[in-house]
Amino acid sequence: MTKLPAGQAQAPRRVEGPSADGPAPELIEAGFGWEIADAGVLHHGLNIADFAHVLDLHHREIISDDVARQLLSVIREAYEMEAGAFPYDPHHGEAYNSRERFFAERIGDSAGWLHAGRPRREAARVAFRIVLRRLTAELLKSSASFAGSACAVAERHRETFMADQTYLQQAQPSTFGHYLLGFVPPALRDGERLEAALDAVNRSPGGAGCVNGSHLLADRGYLASLLGFDSVIEHTRDAMWQVDTFIDILSTGVSLLSNQSKLAEDLEIWSSQEFNYVDLAGPYTRSSVLMPQKRNPYALTIIRGGSGMLIGRLSGFLAVVKTPSARSDNLIFAYGELPRALDYAVKISNLSRGVVETLAVNEARLWKTLEDGFSQATDLAEYVMVEGGIDYRSAYKIVGQTVRAASGAGRRGIDIDVDALAQAGREVAGIELSLDPDGLKAALDPRQIVASRSAQGGAAPVIVADMAERYAQAARGLEQRAAERLADFDQIERTLLDRVDQIISS
């Protein structure tokens, strides 16, 4: 040993290996308690992961038939227990420590074989993906269902004329069907993103070990096949520690709900007495307990709030995953938070679908608002430009002056006549306009304006009907594929349990 200078204390020797002391009460409360609170979310996935790991060990003849029967029997017992009934105890550390204790109390040292070739973190990673793949498929199905319902309602209202708005101001004549259909493409794109994310999350981290794998489980594909994963995540550190796939899923959920929140905010405004454009079905409202006349569009509040909550979950997740590599804190705070967020996203998306499906549209009110306004102004300016042979900016000024004069006199857009435009032409541009009264009448007719929007994506009823049909077909495809994936996951679990029961009964 190197002799230290006089007066300098010997540095304490670093002690390696597990601590001989129990966890601090503060660590139990703030750390292990947090993980245990989320154990119920992973409970089912952990049981499935444990089944497959034991089958893998048995397949490789690492464990005997008797040990396999013992392990599978006790895991089967845990599988049959509700998560809330399982004795997860933060005093034992994280969730898997409670499971190990539970197994050991029943089968003794045979429980120790469960950790052969696999750390507890790997078990949690496998379980996490099992939980997330189902939730991702359910959210995919919900997003497609919302899109399909919106298509059906939009098609019914392809000729429900209204003044479309920007900044809550009348913009141009359109239809409610065209307006509503605008929320479908983003929902379909989010569905496509969720489908890609489902492919990414349905890959196996099993056999990754802690950082560099395990020589006991050289063929990682067998475990992946048992669990119904499409493939193996190749690089072991990638499998254990990277989180980009989870970010993709959650951010897509945020995108989906943000789109639905935009719709909810519009409908909340439009359902007011001041607008009275739409009315929510009774089951999607909540009455005031004080004011008998009030029926609040409560479902829309939940949709908007749910969207905001999911944004918060995404922000929180992004904040904790920016750790150095190979740190557990990037996931232990996600095991419960992320599945809960996705589960709630499914509920919100289903709620949005229900609101849309049952929405009452006040067609008469929409038409009267359109008829009383000046949303034809853009088309009128283009008509003046073409028929008057002047540039668009001059036509814009002439129509603007005409609208100001008409609105000040209490007249409507459809009441504008050739004399009013001629007068504005002289005042604004110093020109004489000679316009055809019949042509002007057609240019001011909201129905004809909408019918003229026959370019791709336009508001013409025939275009809306075509888009609604094609979008609905795409939505049905997404929904069907999601349902098939969910059915696959169910079958994978049944097949796994059959293999488990065969060994138990042998």
Summarize the entry for a quick read.
This protein has 506 residues and is mostly helical.
Describe this structure as you would to a colleague:
With 506 residues, the protein is mostly helical. The chain folds into 3 domains: 25-116, Orthogonal Bundle (Fumarase C, Chain B, domain 1), CATH 1.10.275; 121-216 and 235-365 and 466-497, Fumarase/aspartase (Central domain) (Fumarase C, Chain A, domain 2); 376-445, Fumarase/aspartase (C-terminal domain) (Ribonucleotide Reductase Protein R1, domain 1, Orthogonal Bundle), CATH 1.10.40.30. Helix content is 64%, strand content 5%. The strands form 4 sheets. The protein has a two-stranded antiparallel ribbon with strand order 1-2. It has a two-stranded parallel sheet with strand order 3-4. It has a two-stranded antiparallel sheet with strand order 5-8.
